[in-house]
Amino acid sequence: MTPSTSHLWWQTGVIYQIYPRSFKDTTGNGVGDLRGIIEKLDYLSDTLGVDAIWLSPFYPSPMADFGYDVADYTDVDPLFGDLATFDELVARAHERNLQLLIDLVPNHTSDRHPWFIESRSTRDSRKRDWYVWADPQPDGSPPNNWLSVFGGSAWEWDEATGQYYLHSFLKEQPDLNWRNPEVKEAMFDVVRFWLERDVDGFRVDVAHYIMKDPQLRDNPLDPERAKSIHRPMGDYDSQFHVRDSGHPDVHDVYREFRQLLDSYNDENPRVSIGEIHIFDWEEWATYYGEDLDELHMPFNFALLNVDWRAEAVRKVVDSLEEALPQGAWPNYVLGNHDEPRLASRYGREEARVAAMLLLTLRGTPTIYYGDEIGMVDVPIPPEQLQDPWGETLPQMGRDPCRTPMQWTGGPNAGFSPAQTGELWLPLADDYQSVNVERELGEPASLLNLTRRLLAYRAAIPALTVGGYEPVDGVPETCYAYLRETDEQRVLVILNFSDREERVRIAGPERGEIALSSHLDRSGGVDLRALSVRGNEGLIIELVPS
Ligand code: NOJ
Questions:
Q1: What is the per-residue DSSP string for 202-228?
Q2: Backbone torsions φ then ψ of 192, nearest 5 degrees
Q3: Fewer CB within 10 Å: N-end or C-end of the chain?
Q4: β-pairing, 530-532 with 501-503?
Q5: Are strands 99-104 and 133-134 parallel, antiparallel or unpaired?
Q6: Cα–Cα distance for residue pair 490/503, rounded to 1 Å
């Protein structure tokens, strides 16, 4: 097969998200580090076979929100290493043809960032206007009704200067004022700094939040909203978040940001992926830009909240395909560092079907570390809780999905040379059976399935760049679709139930099974009478009749 020349690496490739604290610790302090990631590059490029890695933040930070509170955008926290190690990571990744994306956190800094320290020092500070400061209402209450995602008012009173500052997340994460051109320039300088260090792109944290209503008007109340929310977030769900984020001038910023990225498209096209929690497709799609001149992709989180039913999943995919602007490239996500683990949400057998779904849909897949071996949410004893969100809203705590990567069945699951018990989060109980080393030795493991899927996807243009066409007339427990180029047609059938189903596909008569998610089946099949076992997914190459 000839690889497509008209598609770019971030369209044909698969991204793997690393949460650096939890991937591999080489110093023995119980926290993962950049050196650990370097040690595992062969795993990523050769054993697994992904194309790009996205690193969650590694910048100097007081770690109030585990790195999403940045105190210096152009350095590495000593906990993770230093700039020289980062440079080595980029070089070693590139040697292996792995692209490297980093997290850009433009909406807020840490309250310990020198910019904020200066901003809050006096009302006359040169950087006062770098953040969003506002006077209290006449009764002393906050300027408006905006709420912090993590709970409570989004405003924090600053006694010394007699004003409130805005924090859409923790009070230790003050929001920057992107309408101040100096802020934009400073953040664009950060972008230049990393592009010059050869990173291949950015995942942009809460990208839509950077522009809010300039008049700071109240959010309208929405008493119904909470009912339609998959994972209720308390009071935050009682409002329409139309004033505290996503003001239309956000698009001007991303157009400029895109021009900046494009100016670095020398040898390798750079990419930007926005973290955009918007579930109205039309609004979501605006972040591609009217002329596809903003973010390359807004992350598509719809599969994180879907019921695990064939019809519901098909609806997500079909509605996305329909909403995509002409020429825009889709993407899918099944897990990340903010969400319950895939295998816990749907089940272990279901996670295999989900892996096949993720790696056969049209668009760029992102795999969350550990999902390839079936890591599950780990219950965290109260004294070991780390995530501040888990303190304000226990159901939202994110520690369970951030536990150490399970490499082996040995001490600390091969994650760390620390003394047992000194890891930043506890290990899963199941690490002796669910780990990379063991699963590599089990022919039908989820890890081996993921490897096979990745290798197959990379080799088959119908999957990497082909069209998507849902197939009607299959049992309601099944979801089937065609992926096709002019030369090649591949049928994917996923059985979401635990019962065997008889499937009859109209049209083509014969096909060759390329892959079963059970990894025990291949060869020719009659598509007029096909049996698909419970929780089985099949990839079938259609034989032209
Ligand atoms: C989204 C990130 O994914 C999350 O981990 C973080 O807490 C918030 N943004 C605030 O930066």
A1: EEETTGGGG---TT-PPPPB-TTGGGG
A2: -60, -45
A3: C
A4: antiparallel
A5: unpaired
A6: 16
Question: Cα(137)–Cα(277) distance, rounded to whole angstroms?
Answer: 30
SS (H, E, C) 349-414: HHHHHHHHHHHHCCCEEEEECCCCCCCCCCCCCHHHCCCHHHHHCHHHCCHHHCCCCCCCCCHHHH
Q: Band of the pLDDT at 3, cuts 50, 70, 90?
A: very low
The answer to whether 190 and 144 have CB atoms below 8 angstroms apart is no
What is the position in ligand 1's atom list of the atom closest to the CA of 68? 11
Q: Report how far ligand 1's centroid is from the alpha carbon of 105 (Å).
A: 9
Can you tell me which residue has the tokens 């992709």? 297
Q: pLDDT by residue (tens digit) across 262-275? A: 999 987 899 999 99
Q: Provide the total of helices (H) and of strands (E) in the chain, helices listed first.
A: 15, 19
CA 101–ligand 1 middle distance (angstroms) = 16
Residues whose beta carbon lies within 6 Å of some atom of ligand 1: 65, 68, 105, 169, 205-206, 275, 337-338
- Please give the positions annotated as active site: 205, 275
Q: Report the alpha-carbon distance of residue 259 to residue 294 in Å, rounded.
A: 8
Mutate to test the pocket of ligand 1, among 19, 22, 68 (most ligand atoms within 8 A of CB): 68
